[in-house]
Amino acid sequence: SLFSTQRDWCLDLAATMESKVEGAKLPPFRSLSDFCFGDARFSLPHFDDPDRLSNRAVRNLLYYQTNYLALYFAVFLIIGLYFPVAVVSGALLLIGTLVVWKVVMSPVSKPNGLLSLLVL
């Protein structure tokens, strides 16, 4: 069936990602002057060469990934302090979506009606 094939694909993908993540480490933080305030960092990219542009974006994301991660968490924390209800609501919606996904993707051994779908 479609769901079992999709489920197997997801499990294979998860196993592959887990094996690649085991030895991974975050690179060190880059200095603030290097990350934000360097003069050469704000040059315009060459839009006429898409391969060079995408390569530049990927290299930038990989080189500064720890800085971007810290910036993401700082912005998320600030927004959480100003709009706590919205952040908690969004987190609950995300958790609810993941629970529904798990229920849909999990195999049901005995069809006992709706109750069997609610059991995780």
Describe this structure as you would to a colleague.
Helices cover 71% and strands 0% of the residues. The protein is an all-alpha fold. Helix 4 packs across helix 5. It is extended, with a radius of gyration of 21 Å.
Radius of gyration: 21 Å
| Fraction of residues in helix | over 70%
Strand content: under 5%
* Helix and strand element order: HHHHHH
Globular, elongated, flat, extended or rod-shaped: what is the shape?
extended
Sequence stretches where pLDDT stays below 50 over 5 or more residues: none
Brief descriptors of the model:
120 residues; mainly alpha; extended
How do the strands and helices of this protein lay out in sequence?
Blueprint: H1 2-21, H2 32-37, H3 50-63, H4 65-82, H5 84-105, H6 114-118
Helix pairs in contact: 4-5
Offer a concise description of the structure.
The protein has 120 residues and is mostly helical. The chain has 6 helices and no strands.
